[in-house]
Hints:
Layout: E1 3-7, H1 13-25, H2 44-52, E2 56-61, E3 64-74, E4 77-85, H3 94-105, E5 111-117, H4 121-129, E6 133-137, E7 141-147
Parallel strand pairs: 4-5
Antiparallel strand pairs: 1-2, 2-3, 3-4, 5-7, 6-7
Helix pairs in contact: 1-2
Amino acid sequence: MGLQLTKAGTSDALTLNGISKRAFDSDLEVGAPSAGGPPGYMSVPFHNKMARANCLYKLTDDGWVVGGAILFLKDDVLNIGRIFVAPEHFRKGYGLFMMQEIEAMFPNVKEITLDTPIWNVRTNAFYTKLGYKEVKRDKEFIFYSKKKEK
């Protein structure tokens, strides 16, 4: 079976919610000013809503859920709302696999966008390594874009 990134259903929302909470709360270890995450990161109703809207994805390894993503497709632009991996699975290549799969799953998009907090050295280095270019920043976030070659 191996690694798979597939659409998640409402039956996955509780599991993904738990992984999301633990993943984002672990950011305390890499400079987060306090425990927390993006809006809805620890809300089962939010994850259910994302599943019903076909925006919630799950990363499985031999059938076990190890991470997730929330993706928003609008016309020919894909916004990666967030990706997250269970902390016990950090540094095993899951994030890289997820990003490569996301890019491959949407071959017709012209641009992929995302943002991440300025203080998060881990995610900023990760997205830059994957070829995402900073397009702007505000007091809290750095906004990235990657144009897809046709």
